[in-house]
């Protein structure tokens, strides 16, 4: 039997039919089922029957998908830098465990998405090869420096391949760490490339189109609906992942998305004002204060949770409603502030802003020195505080001002 043969594989009481695919290990057979999914089967325990030979020409398919092609330079096309940090969009299936693992580099992404060909000249660069839950501030610094270097080298736009689970944090970090003259577009994939419902191709194509457009902003480009029609462009500091698995998991909070990319028409449109290409000069502000925590207050929380924060430089609290915590917490919070911790209040509510001037609890928090963050999203507030502590002489003042679109002047209905 050879890759490309249609086979029937029986293991224990389970029988599967499909096309035999190349495997990265001799220990496992890789079978593409008729539904489009791949499955790995222990070769030693499998009984294989070849039903038809050469049903699928694996070598031709790999060549057509760009497996051995070279990336040619076309002076009439813009240059887009593809930076990989890992994640599902740059992942494949580990047939030893059956899990999805991040292991493609940026050039592998080009080979996996042949629709990218002819849209731009590409430079590939790997900053990290991690699942996004393993993201760290050190990687953020490396990423910001890599983006700056690519722009300095002449990139007309940057696309960052990133895992979706922490993408909003990284996009916020880049928003504060970089002044950019070109678009910086984060994209990822909710479903891996081996799944028939994968969103990796459309997201990657739309991200490149956004990176060629005129908005010199840090954006997240992901499916705008469950259909394969448009990708939404979300401002990096106003976006949140709101669903674990839907392809349109990302939403702009407190406003409509900045714009969208029509996948079929290959058109990019913007709904709101944005910084135009080349309006700003490139600047890198890569210092971050890592000693910042985000604390979600809940009823019944042990006040001893604050003891861990004794020596932290900053604390962002997700308070209830307008920005409250149990009144017993306030003296302890005041002690933290007196000892040098900058404490910032946000709300657990998805819409609206904190206002600690309405109720006694809020007024007591203000008297203790807590800083209101308006309608800044809690995750964005954490990243902003990490950046403000390292780059502003008065970080508390910076947290109360809009720096990168994270804080709106007032909250209004937008639907």
From TrEMBL:
Residues 80-272 form the L-asparaginase N-terminal domain. It is an enzyme of class 6 (ligase). The active site is at 88, 164, 165, 241. It catalyses: L-glutamyl-tRNA(Gln) + L-glutamine + ATP + H2O = L-glutaminyl-tRNA(Gln) + L-glutamate + ADP + phosphate + H(+). It comes from the Archaea. Keywords: ATP-binding, Ligase, Nucleotide-binding, Protein biosynthesis, Transferase. Residues 292-397 form the Asparaginase/glutaminase C-terminal domain. Residues 1-51 form the GatD N-terminal domain. Heterodimer of GatD and GatE. Belongs to the asparaginase 1 family. GatD subfamily. This is Glutamyl-tRNA(Gln) amidotransferase subunit D. It comes from Haloferax marinisediminis.
């Amino acid at each position: 039997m050879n890759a490309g043969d249609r086979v029937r594989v029986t293991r224990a009481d389970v029988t599967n039919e499909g096309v035999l695919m190349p495997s990265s290990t001799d220990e496992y057979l890789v079978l593409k089922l008729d539904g489009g999914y791949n499955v790995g089967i222990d070769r030693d325990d499998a009984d294989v029957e070849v039903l038809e030979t050469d049903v699928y020409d694996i070598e031709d398919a790999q060549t057509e998908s760009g497996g051995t092609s070279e990336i040619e330079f076309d002076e009439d096309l813009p240059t887009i830098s593809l930076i990989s940090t890992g994640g599902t969009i740059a992942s494949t299936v580990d047939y030893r465990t059956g899990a999805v693992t991040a292991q493609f580099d940026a050039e592998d992404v080009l080979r996996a998405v042949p629709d990218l060909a002819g849209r731009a000249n590409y430079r590939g660069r790997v900053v990290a090869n991690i699942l996004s839950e393993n993201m760290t501030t050190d990687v953020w610094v490396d990423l910001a420096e890599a983006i700056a270097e690519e722009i300095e080298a002449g990139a007309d736009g940057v696309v960052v391949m990133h895992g979706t689970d922490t993408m909003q944090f990284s996009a916020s970090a880049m928003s504060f760490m970089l002044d950019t003259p070109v678009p910086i577009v984060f994209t990822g994939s909710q479903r891996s490339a081996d799944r028939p419902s994968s969103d990796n191709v459309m997201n990657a194509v739309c991200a490149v189109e956004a990176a060629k457009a005129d908005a010199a902003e840090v954006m997240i480009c992901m499916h705008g609906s469950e259909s394969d029609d448009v990708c939404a462009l979300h401002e990096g500091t106003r976006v949140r992942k709101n669903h674990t698995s839907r392809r349109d998991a990302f939403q702009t909070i407190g406003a409509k998305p900045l714009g969208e990319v029509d996948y079929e028409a290959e058109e990019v449109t913007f709904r709101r004002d944005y910084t135009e290409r080349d309006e700003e000069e490139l600047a890198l502000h890569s210092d971050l204060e890592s000693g910042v925590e985000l604390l979600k207050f809940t009823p019944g929380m042990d006040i001893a949770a604050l003891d861990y924060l004794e020596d932290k430089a900053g604390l962002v609290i997700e308070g209830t409603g307008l920005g409250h915590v149990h009144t017993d917490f306030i003296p302890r919070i005041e002690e933290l502030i007196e000892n040098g911790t900058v404490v910032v209040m946000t709300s657990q509510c998805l819409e609206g802003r904190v206002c600690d001037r309405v109720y006694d609890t809020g007024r007591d928090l203000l008297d203790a020195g807590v800083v209101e963050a308006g309608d800044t999203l809690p995750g964005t507030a954490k990243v902003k505080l990490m950046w403000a502590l390292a780059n502003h002489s008065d970080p508390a003042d910076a947290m109360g001002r809009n720096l990168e679109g994270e804080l709106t002047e007032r909250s209004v209905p937008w639907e």
